[in-house]
Each structure stands twice: as structure tokens, then as C-alpha cells.
Amino acid sequence: MGDVALRAGVAKTTLYRRWAGKNELVVDAVAVLFDELELPDLGSLSADVQGVVLQFAALLERPETKTALMAVVAESTRDEALRTRIRDSIVARQKRLVLLGRERAQERGELPSEADPATAARTADLIFDVIAGAVVHRALVSAEPVDADWAQRFTVLLIAGLGATASGRVDQKPGGSV
Amino acid sequence: MGDVALRAGVAKTTLYRRWAGKNELVVDAVAVLFDELELPDLGSLSADVQGVVLQFAALLERPETKTALMAVVAESTRDEALRTRIRDSIVARQKRLVLLGRERAQERGELPSEADPATAARTADLIFDVIAGAVVHRALVSAEPVDADWAQRFTVLLIAGLGATASGRVDQKPGGSV
DNA sequence: GGAGTTACGCTACGGGTCGTAGCGTATGGA
DNA sequence: TCCATACGCTACGACCCGTAGCGTAACTCC
Fold it and tell me: Which CATH architecture has domain B2-166?
């Protein structure tokens, strides 16, 4: 915090006049970093997914990003208010990427239109947790590279799974396709 | 740390004689917690996946587990040695669950046998990151419940994706099934 | 049985960081 | 000109990690 104030050229007390504490400041900083993510139209759902995966991985490779993100998530484990703040400021904002990607895929005819809005929202949440969770886990927990090959393999898995989810295969015993 | 020593009924210095520092102790503690995970044979790949997802989620709901895990992962962001220690003590150990689940599914005929061992290993790593990452992200970042409904939806997605991965569908533009 | 080794307990301390109190100061508008 | 608002600065309290140094008990080995 002293370092932050130093780099910002302000007094430490000024930081505490704008943010309630270290956690709040870090959440806001991370939220700004995540706003760099974009979803250019690469022509297919597969390419879009791979693109965002590699982009997210590149963001997570930057020391400030991964350290700040994980530190604040770890802290949120013991602070309910911080947890909701993370969800509102970071998670909810980036769901736009999933919604935009799905919309484009539907326009291309790669995914069917959603019938039930509630189911559509739950599916979007599922997709978001799968993508973000897998990339974070691969990069920061397993500590192995998120390269083009991995992104490609992950995308194959995800999109095939998406097809099953979208086609209403919600029986109690899935996996009958093999 | 003072609290740990107090609860253990030993002096703080004794802890530092057994572990190099707080991080190493926490990694070992988390590794023990993760060893509670089991993979009972529930009769189908789908049931096995749902079972382990719910079991993992229950483990992550316990305050000690989630706080300790995320704290040490966050710290590993700035400590390469700690990072490899986490990978060796926690991640690598729990890959047994994926390998066992796949083996059973192959015996049941739900998944084909692997031709290339290297590809099989990479696929196992992918599955592990997807499962662990999605559950952790859902529970601790999105801060939404990992209940039976979510586990069921996630399993449908994963197993359908597994089918695509296993059947050698590794073309540049997947998703042609929709 | 005596001497040495090993492991542990205990106190005190240094270092670092978060967050706050209190006070002085400048800027900008009425 | 006066007042309100915001900022800078110093000092400080509180907390926690990790270590130094020393005393002590148990255990082994001759």
C-alpha cells in the first residue's frame, strides 16, 4: 500500500480516503485489467473460444494480474462482502463475453436459439465457470502452459459439450453417445 | 501460526523446525484434506463424475479447506518453489481420480481405449483442469452453489465433450455437430 | 550408571505491513 | 475575504511472521 501510494504520487492516507481498504482497491484494479478482454469476431465459435482462452491466459501470465486476482479471491474466502464485490465487479462484467459469443454463434447457425431464458442464463453461467475455471486452474494451479494446443483441445471438448447441452439432452444418465 | 502451535500443543519454534515456513505447512495440510476424496464406483461414468464433483464441492465448502487452498495458491503466484510444491503434493496426487474414473469407464465400454499414451496423458490433464477449475471457480469466484443440478448439467457437458475428444475429432474447426 | 546427542519449550525480539489520528496546508467557490 | 473540501505528512498502534538464544528433558550408547 505504501508502494501503491508512492507510485501514484499521493499520500497513503489519500488511498484510504478513496477505498475502504486494500481489498477494495485491488478488486477495482483487477476489474480494470479484466476490462481489457475483448471478443473479436474470428468467424466461428471455435475460433472465438480459442481466441478468448489465449487472451485470458495472456492476461493471467502478467504478474500483477495473477497475483492481485488470486490474493483478493483468497481473501474473499473469509469476507462475504468482498466476495459479492468480486462477483459484481469482475465476474458479472465478464459474462458479457459469453453472451456475445453465444449470440454470434446463434447468428451463424452454430448454436440453436434458446427456448427458456432461465435455462439460457444457467447455461451461460456454466460455460463461464468452465472456461474461466479451466484456464485459471491450468495456468495457476497445475502451473502448466495454456498454449495454442491446449486451447484447441479444450475448445473441442467445450463445443462438443455445448452441443449436448443445447440439444436438451438432460436425462439422468448422460454419456450414452459412446 | 501462533494459533496453530497453540492448537497443536507445541511451541511455535517446533513448527519452524519441521516446516520451512507457513506456506509449506499449509500445503501439507491441504494435501491431507484432499486425500479425503474418493471415487466410489457408482455404476456409470456420469454418476462417477457427478459424485466426485459434489464431493469436491463439499470439501471446498469447509472454511479451512477453501481458505487454506486459495491462500497458498495466491502465494504461489510469487513463489516458484511453492508452485511446484503445490503441483506435486496436491494436483499430481489427485489426478489419480481422473485416471481411475477413465479406467472404469473404459472397462464399462463408455470410453474407448487410448491409442497414444502421450495423448491420453494430455487428455487426463485437460479433464482434471476442467473439473477442478470449473468447481473451484463456481464455488469460490462466482460464489454460487455447486448443487446437484449444476453438477448434473456440468457432467452432461463434460461427457459429451469427452466423446468428441476421444473419437479423434481434432480438426481445426470443431463444433460441426450442430 | 554417566556422558553426549537430539529434540523440544520458552521468551524476547526484529522486520514488515495495514490502517488510523491528528494537524497543517492549498485550492476553489460564494 | 471567508469557508469548505481535499490532500500531504508524521507518527503511531496493532498484528503477524520468522529467528536467536538459552534452558531442559528424554533417549542412546558405552
Answer: Orthogonal Bundle (1.10)
Longest Cα–Cα distance in chain B: 63
Q: What are the residue boundaries of the structural domains of chain B, listed by start?
A: 2-166
Cα separation, B159 vs A58, whole angstroms: 28
Least confident of A41-45, B9-13, B84-88, B103-107: B9-13
Q: Do A63 and B77 touch (CB under 8 A)?
A: yes
Calculate mean pLDDT across residues A105-133.
95
Residue A78 with chain B: CB contacts under 8 Å: 63, 67
CA distance B78 to B87: 15
Domain A21-166 maps to which CATH number in 3.40.190.80, 3.75.10.10, 3.40.50.10420, 1.10.357.10? 1.10.357.10
Which amino acid is it at B148? A
**B77 with A87: Cβ contact below 8 A:** no
What integer pLDDT is reported at residue B167 of this predicted model?
Answer: 67
Digit-coded pLDDT (tens) for A44-64: 999 999 999 999 999 999 999
Task: With beta carbons under 8 A apart, name residues in chain A contacting B132.
Answer: 133, 137, 141
**How close A72 comes to chain B (CA, Å)?**
8
